[in-house]
């Protein structure tokens, strides 16, 4: 009898697990415009403005069309567009960056522990790559030209290097 009960319990659990789904939970609200106000609701590291007080300005940034100064030791400048620049990005899980490179400038090896990055080359020629983190530490590289796109998987060390004799510009979207 105990064998039958065990079998029934096993079948019920097996069927229940086949109906389970693994996904991100739905947001509790449409958006959470970030503000520095301790009297508001605290979500994901930033306080939320009362949604009734949100304006289009909370979801807007202007200036990614402006080239940045690359006169620094690495020969590149990253212009981020995240929750600091657009408070409405708070809790949405996405950000953007413009990267300007002088000839032979680089965005040195770095990682984004919680973000996938997708890079679009607007102008110039970049040599890009990442290293896998498993036991073989394989290097994936590619030369990108204007209009090309490359993905850097989450958490992996990656880099970009302007191999051209002219300035280069790329835009990166990050999933965090």
Automatic annotation (TrEMBL):
<dbReference type="InterPro" id="IPR019780">
    <property type="entry name" value="Germin_Mn-BS"/>
</dbReference>
<keyword id="KW-1015">Disulfide bond</keyword>
<feature type="binding site">
    <location>
        <position position="112"/>
    </location>
    <ligand>
        <name>Mn(2+)</name>
    </ligand>
</feature>
<dbReference type="Pfam" id="PF00190">
    <property type="entry name" value="Cupin_1"/>
</dbReference>
<feature type="signal peptide">
    <location>
        <begin position="1"/>
        <end position="22"/>
    </location>
</feature>
<comment type="similarity">
    <text>Belongs to the germin family.</text>
</comment>
<keyword id="KW-0964">Secreted</keyword>
<dbReference type="InterPro" id="IPR014710">
    <property type="entry name" value="RmlC-like_jellyroll"/>
</dbReference>
<dbReference type="InterPro" id="IPR006045">
    <property type="entry name" value="Cupin_1"/>
</dbReference>
<feature type="binding site">
    <location>
        <position position="107"/>
    </location>
    <ligand>
        <name>oxalate</name>
    </ligand>
</feature>
<dbReference type="GO" id="GO:0030145">
    <property type="term" value="F:manganese ion binding"/>
</dbReference>
<keyword id="KW-0732">Signal</keyword>
<feature type="binding site">
    <location>
        <position position="112"/>
    </location>
    <ligand>
        <name>oxalate</name>
    </ligand>
</feature>
<dbReference type="InterPro" id="IPR011051">
    <property type="entry name" value="RmlC_Cupin_sf"/>
</dbReference>
<feature type="binding site">
    <location>
        <position position="117"/>
    </location>
    <ligand>
        <name>oxalate</name>
    </ligand>
</feature>
<dbReference type="InterPro" id="IPR001929">
    <property type="entry name" value="Germin"/>
</dbReference>
<keyword id="KW-0479">Metal-binding</keyword>
<comment type="function">
    <text>May play a role in plant defense. Probably has no oxalate oxidase activity even if the active site is conserved.</text>
</comment>
<feature type="binding site">
    <location>
        <position position="110"/>
    </location>
    <ligand>
        <name>Mn(2+)</name>
    </ligand>
</feature>
<keyword id="KW-0052">Apoplast</keyword>
<protein>
    <recommendedName>
        <fullName>Germin-like protein</fullName>
    </recommendedName>
</protein>
<keyword id="KW-0464">Manganese</keyword>
<feature type="domain" description="Cupin type-1">
    <location>
        <begin position="62"/>
        <end position="176"/>
    </location>
</feature>
<keyword id="KW-0325">Glycoprotein</keyword>
<feature type="binding site">
    <location>
        <position position="158"/>
    </location>
    <ligand>
        <name>Mn(2+)</name>
    </ligand>
</feature>
<feature type="binding site">
    <location>
        <position position="117"/>
    </location>
    <ligand>
        <name>Mn(2+)</name>
    </ligand>
</feature>
<feature type="disulfide bond">
    <location>
        <begin position="32"/>
        <end position="48"/>
    </location>
</feature>
<dbReference type="GO" id="GO:0048046">
    <property type="term" value="C:apoplast"/>
</dbReference>
């Amino acid at each position: 009898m105990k064998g039958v009960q065990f079998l029934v319990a096993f079948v019920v659990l097996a069927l229940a697990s086949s109906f389970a789904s693994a996904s991100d939970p739905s947001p509790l609200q449409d958006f959470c415009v970030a503000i520095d106000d301790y009297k508001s609701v605290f979500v994901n590291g930033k306080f939320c403005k009362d949604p009734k007080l949100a304006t289009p300005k909370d979801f807007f940034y202007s200036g990614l069309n402006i080239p940045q100064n690359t006169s620094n030791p690495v020969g590149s400048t990253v212009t981020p567009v995240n929750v600091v620049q657009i408070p409405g990005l708070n809790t949405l899980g996405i950000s953007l960056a413009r990267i300007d490179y002088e000839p032979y400038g680089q965005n040195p090896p770095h990682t984004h522990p919680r973000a996938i990055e997708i890079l679009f080359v607007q102008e110039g020629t970049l040599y890009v790559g990442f290293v896998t983190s498993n036991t073989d530490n394989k290097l994936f590289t590619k030369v990108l030209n204007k209009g090309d796109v490359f993905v850097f998987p989450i958490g992996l060390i990656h880099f970009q290097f302007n191999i051209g004799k002219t300035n280069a510009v790329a835009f990166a979207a990050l999933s965090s």
